[in-house]
Amino acid sequence: MNNSSFLALIVLASTLAAQADSQSSAPQASPATPAAGSKTVKLCDNKTTVQVPNDAPKTRAEGQKISDALMAQWKATNPDTKWVKEEVEAHQVVTPADNSKLVGTGQSSTYGTVTQQDVQVWKNETYKTAVYGSKVFHSGDELGSEIAVSCDMCHPRAANTHPESYPKFQPQLGRVALLRDMINWCIEHPVRGKVLAPDDPKMRALEAYIIAQRKGVPLDYGKR
Amino acid sequence: MNDNAKIPHIRSVETRHLEERETLFRGLSNLDRRSFLKVSTGAAAAALAAGASNHFHSFLPVNVAYAAEGGGGVQGQGFTFAYISDSHLYVKKTNERFVRQLLRAVDDINKLDPQPDFVFYGGDLAQLGRKEELDLGAQILKSIKAPVHMMVGEHDWYFDMGQRWNELFGAQTYSFDHKGVHFVVLMSVQEKDFWSARGMSPAERMHTVAGLDNAVQSAFEVGAAQREWLRKDLDKVPKSTPLIVFSHSPLYKLYRPWNFWTDDAEDVQALLQRFDRVTVLHGHTHQVLTNRIGNIQFHGMLSTAWPWPYAPQGLPALTVQMNRPNPFDSNDGLGDGTVSVHPDGLVDKLYSLWNRNPMQVKASYLSSGGKSDVPVAPTLASY
Q1: Can you name the residues that pair with B176 across neighbouring β-strands?
Q2: Parallel, antiparallel, or unpaired for β A175-177 and A168-170?
Q3: Is residue B319 part of a domain?
Q4: What's the total number of domains in chain B?
Q5: Do B306 and A154 make contact, defined as CB atoms within 8 angstroms?
Q6: Would B65 be classed as within a structural domain?
């Protein structure tokens, strides 16, 4: 799974002093014993650490430096973090609706109005799900194909997947099929992989991608 | 009163289908122009009487000995050649299905009676350009009884840049003459170097090109050097000679995101336009596809591996789509076919769709701008 590219807990400099004692005594948290006169700061993955001198000035700039150092380390040990960019470069994925006109209006979280950040988070997270779907869709390995076949071989850019036509009676199955039933049928037969549970992250992502690519087409369930 | 008299004699769809078929093939066994007309009228009448007009076209004979109508340079009564295309073979251990499908096409062609003058292979014999895949393909194609002419596709090329393909099949660009028709085979899937700057391995480069909708790759083109070769090759050919050109990608611009496209198509067309009768046959699109630009008639070829959907934009107005393939039938939308060259040098293109009625796209349909001999449209067009 790759849904962690925006891993971003920033340890603020202002909290360092308060935590100094517990940090230094944390069990196997830091690989090396902190040098005298410094303390260990951890990233939210509970693995990545940096050493910070005790006398480091407690300023915002200094805090930013620490978090940058942590993220740089994390990116080095997680080389797959550019998967969204790489996937989108290879395979165009339709972007989700633009909600920026809501910024500054109404209620988002309990008390605040909708912020630019809210809108960005909604968009990023939704898009990322569809992009992950694209990645699965285009990879026989991700799909678990035994015969090196992937969805895009018959459905470039998800063409002719017509998600708007489901649910519909599928005579070949003798019952009403949802989009996910057809996805699973294709995975089992033409692709020769293992069927996915309805809530499998890959199934959710495949549905997201297929629906994303048909953005703007009116729903017409039952259409043959 | 006899109730039985009121009950019509009902024959099932299958029975009527088989009867029509019987009638036709009985007539075909001693075909000349007169009996052909009789047979085809009979089949038409039977089909129309049954209220199933779409059965009419299914039994039109493939290759008819037309009376010579003057013009052209085709010797005798015209001739037929067959085609197989886009088999996308993996090695057997990886995927046997595509192998079996190519074998089915080879069987189809070997069963043709009379045999075609030759068989043309439309490119993409291999899926990932590996030596083992190309070798397997070459081995299977050896069992074709008629002579075989090969064309290269992008899936054959971008692992070793054509090295193994050239060893097996010779030059990728060539021309030959057959019964008064000049044939040209092009390598239309040249791509500008997108791989060096990205530091791609040969396998990565091949994998990128193998993805139809992969936007990292470049557009297909014939390229300046090959266009110059074509210009020289055609210099010695009189304009009245019928010309048939093979290219893997369509030699026109249909839909760039899937490389249903040749970037320098206009330049190549310009070299062909001076001829009276030009036909271009292409692979790559895995579907029934028909176009006419000026006096150039274009036909696609079916794949034996998988069908492509129709592009969302740019479909030529003359294309009558094949039926939307049924995903529950792994051979639907696939097939092979034959090309009947008339004495005047134009061709009727037969798409022998497996498990379905064949579709024929006649030269007269294209010459008339879509007015006569319109192929029967499918029940289920693409969404």
Answers
A1: B183
A2: antiparallel
A3: yes
A4: 2
A5: yes
A6: no
pLDDT digits (tens, 9 = 90+) for B232-262: 999 999 999 999 999 999 999 999 999 999 9
Residue of A nearest to B215 (CA): A90
Distance in Å, alpha carbon of B99 to nearest chain A alpha carbon: 12
ipTM exceeding the 0.95 mark: no
Q: Judge whether A150 lies within some domain.
A: yes
Site from A93, A141, A160 to mutate, B interface, most B CB atoms within 10 angstroms: A160
Structure-derived torsion over alpha carbons of residues A94, A100, A105, A107, reported in degrees to the nearest 10: 40
Whether the CB-CB separation of B86 and B121 falls below 8 Å is answered with no
Chain segment A46-80, per-residue pLDDT in tens: 999 999 999 989 999 999 999 999 999 998 888 88
Our measurement of the distance from residue B165's CA atom to the centroid of its chain's CA atoms, rounded to an integer in Å, reads 21
Interface membership of A148 toward B (CB under 8 Å): yes
Using a CB–CB cutoff of 8 Å, tell me whether A32 touches chain B. no
Q: How far is CA B331 from CA A9, B140, B283, B336, in A?
A: 52, 19, 18, 12
Residue A87 covered by a domain: no
Contact A159 B309 (CB under 8 A): yes
CA distance B362 to B365: 5
The pLDDT tens digits of the residues spanning B78-114 come to: 999 999 999 999 999 999 999 999 999 999 999 999 9
What is the four-CA torsion angle of B273, B274, B275, B279, rounded to 10 degrees? -10
Q: Is B199 on the interface with A (CB under 8 A)?
A: no
Would you say B56 and B48 are in contact if contact means Cβ atoms under 8 Å apart?
A: yes
Residue among A153, A157, A186 whose CB faces B327 most closely:
A186
Does B212 sit within 8 Å of A92, measured CB to CB? Answer: no
Asked if residue B71 belongs to a domain, the reply is no
What phi and psi values does residue B144 have, to the nearest 5 degrees? -75, 135
Per the CB < 8 Å rule, is B257 touching A92?
Answer: yes
- Say how many domains are in chain A: 2
Q: For residue B279, report the phi and psi dihedrals to the nearest 5 degrees.
A: -125, 135
Q: Which domain holds residue A26?
A: 13-77
> What is the residue range of B300's domain?
79-367
Chain A residues in contact with B90 (beta carbon < 8 A): 147-148
Residue A83 lies in a domain: no
Cross-chain residue pair B383–A165, CB shorter than 8 Å? yes
- Cα-Cα end-to-end distance for chain B: 53
